[in-house]
Input
Amino acid sequence: AQSVTQLDSQVPVFEEAPVELRCNYSSSVSVYLFWYVQYPNQGLQLLLKYLSGSTLVESINGFEAEFNKSQTSFHLRKPSVHISDTAEYFCAVKGGNAGNMLTFGGGTRLMVKP
Amino acid sequence: DADVTQTPRNRITKTGKRIMLECSQTKGHDRMYWYRQDPGLGLQLIYYSFDVKDINKGEISDGYSVSRQAQAKFSLSLESAIPNQTALYFCATSPGPPGELFFGEGSRLTVL
Output
């Protein structure tokens, strides 16, 4: 079965510093990749996705992620974080051994400090 | 108003009680899902439905049942709640492949 590993459960960072949230998945077969964000007391919402084409995808609020097929990774980055980016971030994979369902990683809590 | 609405948002109950969590959506999507969120485990799929006549078990369906009353409504039941079902439950919808999910705000269930 497909597995998704988010290597860091918590990432503390100071405001305006860069951040990388790591995500690795197990299947090397064609997959769709997603990052979701969950703000406190809210449901998850889509941040960005890779379906095909350019391996670098961007969100409207400055996050980007790069699909690396050889390393089966889809790390999320932002060059300068804001307090408002404090949230939990989930990587998810669809396809490969997971078939038609999304498989989620365990989540990474990003804590931005002033 | 939210596109995906879950009720109740919070519920405390006792072991052995029957609980129903309800989900309704105004997005017009055929596909609906119930997930469970536990700290450090991400989201685990309980049940999903691709249309009114289609119900499928997810990875952790034991102890749960669902009903798809209409395209817009998908409810999750715990026939006899137990403490390890204490969790945050999310309903989600999607329009079809490749399947971006749209989530409700969650229902926090505590079983004492």
In short: The CA atoms of residues 90 and 112 of chain B lie 20 Å apart. The two ends of chain B are 32 Å apart (CA to CA). Chain B touches chain A at residues 4, 40-45, 48, 58, 90, 92, 97-101, 103-106 (CB under 8 Å). Chain B has a mean pLDDT of 93.
